[in-house]
Amino acid sequence: MNTIILRTIAPALTALMIIFSLFVLLRGHNEPGGGFIGGLIAASAMALYGISSGVRAVRRALYFHPVTMGGFGVLMAACSGIPSYINQVPFLSGIWWKVPLGNGDYFDLSTPMIFDIGVWFVVVGAITAIMLTLEEAD
Amino acid sequence: MADPNLISEAMRTTPTLLAEWKILTPMLAPLVLAAISLILRQKDQWQFYIAFTAALIAMIGSGFLVFDIIIDGPQSLVMSGWLAPYGIAFTADSLSAIFAFIASLVTLLIILYSPADVDKAASKAGYYTLIMMLLVGVNGSFLTGDIFNLYVWFEVMLISSFGLLILGGDKIQLDGAVKYAFLNLLGTTFFLIATGLLYGVTGTLNFADLFGKVAASEATGTLAILSVLFLFAFGIKAAAFPMYFWLPAAYHTPRVAVSAIFAGLLTKVGIYALMRIFTIVFPEGNGAAFELFGIIGGLTVIVGGLGAIAQTELRRMLAYLLMSGVGMLMIGISIHTQLSLMATVQYAIHSMLVMTGLYLLSGVIGRMAGSFEIAKIGGIVMQNHFVAIAYFGLALAVMGLPPFSGLWPKYMMVMAAFEQGHYWLITAILVGSFLTIAAVGRASIQMIWRGGDVDTPDGQYEARGKRLENKQLRIMMLPISIIFLLTLWLGVSPNTMIRQADLAAYDLLNVEQYIQATFDTGEPEQ
């Protein structure tokens, strides 16, 4: 698989896929997409990079250990239920904040989005950890 | 904006109080701390403290829950502000709360034992994280108010238990894990199929909602099959008679602390699920299931006792004793009166504590003798009186002899069977108890009193065991001593346990309060 075509194109394609995965993650609330599928796309990007440049390059690019990313994701998803406590609604209720952008527009920040980003981290972390381990065992 | 009346029918409009969050702490605290321990897994010296905190918070949370339920009746919280049956409900009655409390306590004791049994590598590989996730799954199963979520929590528990079972990666562990994983996945698959069919028949999966809908449903044939499917699925989890093979095949393979937490918690979750489903979903038993429970329970008690006598390996013997205890619990569900369910709850609490204690003690004995083969263990009484006394006490408890906690539930179970005229169940209980006494008594004569291994002549003392370091022995004996004192206390002064078990049995047989709590909208009574 280690052809020059793949090695040349893979880094660019990886970057593109990660941007696309973030796009899918953020559009998830109202349209098809979300943390799980976005995470899968990002994990595929890591797999592609791993096939072309090797496991060590992927580990270096990730900086954090994939399992740490997974743990961070679980923590984030679980903590997205905490603002419910301050608002006196049951655990994991959707709470929306309107963040003004200055020019009259608002950016909608919400606990479901925090939850989804947590899911994204869990999926990227778990799938990448499994993939890198299998790749190293070869 | 939607019609406000429509919203108040499906969504909660009253504020949620801090007190209502209590029901979440037994799951949320270990979950958050498990995530933190995963992030910090290279710092293996912190792992123990994180896990200890998690189990402690879970125990305190569920302890408060127990008291709240004694005062106010069952508690419920529905996620995300939806109302039951649309939202995901957590509902706890006396049974769920006391089980969650004992499960958290058992986990706490096992975490206390762990430093003596778990090396750095296992700790870095996620031992403490998996223990915490196991607690999340177990407490979730106890506290959930809906069958599908019961399935989800079962999965959380199973996946963590797979991880714990193969931690270390010995050949024998993988062998045990394959049997364990296969049979448990089979059980889970049947559970999921039955859940799907139940949804098809009734259109709901919330326990409280199912109560009326199953009784009103005309599909009695399908429901009868479903009840048997649930019995089969949870029978596998609980290791009841024809589906028990995975338990003795797997429980002696992992490290001792893992065997102990499995013995204390996993089968009891299967029993809890049976108790819950066969009181609120199928209160009539449907499909002659109660007679079936009795047959399965009686056979499990006897086969467990026979298996215990036949074993030559200490931990395999304990696995069969555990199974025999599961049979007792099945008998209690089968008789299905206030007294028998009370005995079942008591026996479950007793079994969680005592089986954990015995498994932990088997670790000490195995370490002292350098082997788990009963033939090779000997002279424990001369090496360490303290260990011998602890074994003696826990052995009396598991046999059901006074002054330990095994006596009362067994006595009440026999009384309940007598009241209902189930004479062959009494026979099964007594034969099972006799076999247990024989097995445990034989093991104690050989391991504790015999001077050395199997060829040592009478009257000679030549134990070749190694002396444990004092520090390590102290770590290992602390949780065992706590269990010893607890079981002694529950045996000498059983009132606290009887009162709590009585409440739990009452809540099981009178589900109105449970249903009321689940559908509670938080609005004041009018």
Automatic annotation (TrEMBL), chain A:
Cellular localisation: Cell membrane
Domain Na+/H+ antiporter MnhB subunit-related protein: 5-128
Source superkingdom: Bacteria
NCBIfam families according to UniProt: PRK12509.1 (NF009163), PRK12573.1 (NF009223)
GO cellular component: plasma membrane
This protein's record includes keyword NAD: no
Bilayer topology term: Multi-pass membrane protein
Protein's name according to its UniProt entry: Na(+)/H(+) antiporter subunit B
Major subcellular location class: membrane
Pfam families: MnhB
Keywords: Cell membrane, Membrane, Transmembrane, Transmembrane helix
Family: Belongs to the CPA3 antiporters (TC 2.A.63) subunit B family.
Transmembrane segments annotated in the record for this chain: 5-26, 32-51, 63-86, 113-134
